[in-house]
Amino acid sequence: KLEIIAAAGLGDNAGLTAEEVRCAAGTASRLIQEDGAIIIHLPTCVWELPGGLQAFVEGWEQGKYRFDRYRTEPEPVWTQSPLVIVPDFIFQQDADAALQKGLLVSEAVNLSRDLLNTPANDMTPVQFAAQAIECGKLAGMKTEVLDETAMGDLKMGALLGVAQGSSQESQ
After folding, report:
1. What is the DSSP letter of 168?
2. Which member of 1, 98, 131, 146 has the lowest number of beta carbons within 10 Å of its beta carbon?
3. What is the pLDDT confidence band of residue 167, given thresholds at 50, 70 and 90?
4. Average pLDDT, stretch 164-171?
5. Would you call 46 exposed, middle or buried from its count of C-beta atoms within 10 A (0-12, 13-18, 19+)?
6. Which residues pair with 40 in a beta bridge?
7. Helix or strand holding residue 39 (H, E)
8. Distances from the Cα of 134 to the Cαs of 52, 131, 137, 143, 145, in angstroms?
9. Distance between the two ends of the chain, CA-based, in angstroms?
10. How far apart are CA 23 and CA 10, in angstroms?
11. CB 23 within 8 A of CB 51
12. CA separation for the pair 109, 111 (Å, rounded)
């Protein structure tokens, strides 16, 4: 039994861009905030568009973003990911690669949104540096945090200026 059927128009296929696919997917994911099975059938023009599937995944995942860290009663978290039907003319490994890249990009974008939305009294230079170290570890990278002296030596005045409003040292 289907409870919701949604269709999104993408306009003229001849001029379709990845950004239009991303925007349509984001709108759809914001509108379909339901738990349960979600099956997506993407039109051929999306599959044929370079980066089309990745753009769809990015839009869908970024459309689900909510910053409710400070709400006493956060909105219910909607974690449902859709089942995307892959047509026969697409190699499954290509679809999987686009899916993984789209998820990775979306995770990074949503983390950036969290960092920007966090008030300065909570996202101090020390907290920001700790977040950068954690991200580096997750990515398998070595992360070096510079102190004010090293930042001054490297002429990183813009970063030093931003942290002047904090009681904590720039990092």
Report:
1. S
2. 1
3. confident
4. 80
5. buried
6. 84
7. strand 39-40
8. 31, 5, 5, 9, 12
9. 55
10. 10
11. no
12. 5
